[in-house]
Amino acid sequence: MGLDKLRWLSGLVLFALLWSVVPLASADEAKIERVHAVEEDSRLRIIFDLDNVPEHDVFSLSDPYRVVIDFDQTELATQDLPRAGLLREMRSGVQQSGQLRLVLDMEERVDTRSFVIGQGGEQGHQLLLDLTPDKREAHEASRERAQPVRSASERNQDKALIAIDAGHGGVDPGAIGPSGTYEKDVALAVARKLRDLIEQEPSLEPLMIRDGDYYMALRDRTRKAREHEADLFLSLHADGAENPNVKGASVYALSVDGATSERARMLARRENAADFLGGVSLEDKDDDLRSVLVDLTRGATIEASLEVGDYMLTELDRHADLLRNRVDRAGFAVLKSVDMPSLLIELGFMTNAEEERRLNDPGYQSQLADGILAAVKQYAGNYILPEIRQAQEGKREHTVERGDSLSQIARKYQVSTDAIRQANNLSGDQINVGNTLVIP
């Protein structure tokens, strides 16, 4: 082989190798076409109009306080950057890595949350960045949660109050189906059907957390349930996944020890991103308060939530396909109410064309509501209503189950372990499964 031919072949191979490793940047690039701001009460919303959805990271810097957004492979096609309310100035620049960085100089410390809406195509996308004054303090969290809410028996009522939370709402559509169905609409439709069914039950009473198409913060959802002293909190959702073939209903409870599956971890991240203010944030609490809150969260409410979840899976299995046959656990902000059994129920996958069609069917929505009601009735009949009857009779009793401890039972009924020992002539903390304890 001649030298020229060898050089020519070597050049061709080199060209092919370079072509294979050089990315086609234009395929993944996004363009920010407009940035504008909307003030709503104390919240400032920054809206980025995009032609594609870029990878982005939002974080904060102090002294002075700034919010920073880094965009991958993104072009800023406008220099008209807003100033409004909490936002003194917005600056832009391109880093050595090629990332577009936007720096928001703030008047004060803020909480941030971001999510993307829009169908793409001609309609484009919008990245919404909400900025809210950070007024959370550790003593507020302590005051709000130091005294668990009372159960129905302690309210001297003869009905169990069931809080029904329709996920997402308003500007937050949740997952979007291939035909354009919004998760928020499906969740609300099933929630209303469940409410109507519960209203027909003489021993149950519904509490709608969201009863319209409006945005509601996660923390406000659990606060409403507490203020009304609910006995059970159910948050209804419809899942989304990159794989359009994934389908099935699923049930989740709170975990403080990590997620039970990668799916649970990813879902909790997505749901929590709907509201950065929601739930019990432990990061800004001192060590003593953090340990108290964790101890409460590890207690009887998680065990009770898992109990309800088992009933829920059994009943949903009669009407829907199940994603898996167990109650998954993860750190959902909307479940961090610490003082009542709480579940997050995924009714199916909006991103699966078949399930999107079924979730849009009023008949199927009614079947799902029937299954949820059946589970609620079983749990209430076994746990909540007996407490109500015992309270009306002037006494309370607890049958010891596997996993119970004296301290957990004391927390559940808000009495001291010493009081339970004295009422039952116990010399120590040893209790046996199946024994009935008198609760003073």
From TrEMBL:
Residues 136-155 are annotated as: Disordered. One of its GO terms (biological process) is peptidoglycan catabolic process. Keywords: Hydrolase. SUPFAM superfamilies: LysM domain (SSF54106), Zn-dependent exopeptidases (SSF53187). It catalyses: Hydrolyzes the link between N-acetylmuramoyl residues and L-amino acid residues in certain cell-wall glycopeptides. It comes from the Bacteria. InterPro entries: AMIN_dom, LysM, LysM_dom_sf, MurNAc-LAA_cat, N-acetylmuramoyl_amidase_3. GO terms for cellular component: outer membrane-bounded periplasmic space. GO terms for molecular function: N-acetylmuramoyl-L-alanine amidase activity. Its EC number is 3.5.1.28. Residues 396-439 form the LysM domain. It holds the Pfam family AMIN. It is an enzyme of class 3 (hydrolase). This is N-acetylmuramoyl-L-alanine amidase. It comes from Halorhodospira halochloris. The gene is amiB.
